[in-house]
Design brief:
By secondary structure, this protein is an all-alpha fold. It folds into 2 domains: about 10-125, RNA polymerase sigma factor, region 2, helix turn helix motif (Rna Polymerase Sigma Factor, Chain: A, Orthogonal Bundle), CATH 1.10.1740.10; about 125-194, Arc Repressor Mutant, subunit A (Orthogonal Bundle), CATH 1.10.10. It has helices at about 5-30, 35-55, 60-75, 85-105, 115-125, 125-140, 145-155, 160-170, 170-190. Helix 7 (about 145-155) packs across helix 8. About 20% of the residues are buried.
């Protein structure tokens, strides 16, 4: 009889998936064409699921967005910071492509202020964005898991509260509280920085 996966099982699977994709990408960047092809194929499947969950009212747009995102990943592969999580980088590019789609369709209602703020981040120079990602990673490392993981999943990877609860094994209310308290703790850390 199958048992319900535990939080540690899910985290282990996510970590293994991250490590596998990252390894394939790094092999591809080093010239291994086969590894790079496998990486893009696997990322395509991951992106397809990512977009299907978010574009339920526009299912016919999913495949185009997958292809556009894969092309952007290929064109921007030199910007990937090897010490950073690959999925966060991929999801940031995917969210940018989704925002482009909404804007091109005049779906202003689908965009809220936090996404507009995020767009300003993408407009910054690559150096500033890389520095910000590195600094954010250092700040997040200072938070306990129950605050850090919900922030990573919801704010960086774009998962919903329900998806984050499943991924972390936390209740939905604990996820919301974790994000709220984690963001307050991050603000305090930033305020305390010299």
């Amino acid at each position: 009889m199958e048992h319900e996966p535990t939080r540690s099982d899910m985290l282990l699977r996510m970590q293994q998936g991250e490590e596998r994709l990252r390894s394939l990408l790094l092999q591809g960047l080093a010239g291994d064409a086969k590894a790079y092809q496998v990486c893009l194929t696997d990322m395509g499947a991951h992106l397809r699921a990512f977009f299907k969950r978010r574009l339920t009212s526009l299912p016919h747009e999913v495949e185009d967005l997958v292809q556009e995102t894969l092309l952007a990943l290929h064109n921007q592969r030199h910007t990937y910071q090897r010490e950073q999580p690959l999925t966060a980088w991929v999801h940031a590019i995917a969210r940018y492509k989704m925002i482009d789609l909404f804007r091109s369709r005049g779906r202003r209602d689908a965009l809220n202020d936090p996404l507009d703020d995020e767009m300003q981040l993408f407009a910054a120079s690559q150096t500033e964005a890389c520095d910000a990602r590195r600094d954010l990673g250092r700040l997040l490392e200072q938070l306990p898991d129950h605050q850090r993981l919900p922030i990573i999943h919801m704010k960086l990877e774009g998962l919903s509260v329900i998806e984050t609860a499943r991924a972390t094994g936390m209740s939905e209310s604990a996820v919301k509280v974790g994000v709220h308290r984690g963001l307050k703790a991050l603000a305090a850390l930033v305020g305390a920085s010299p």
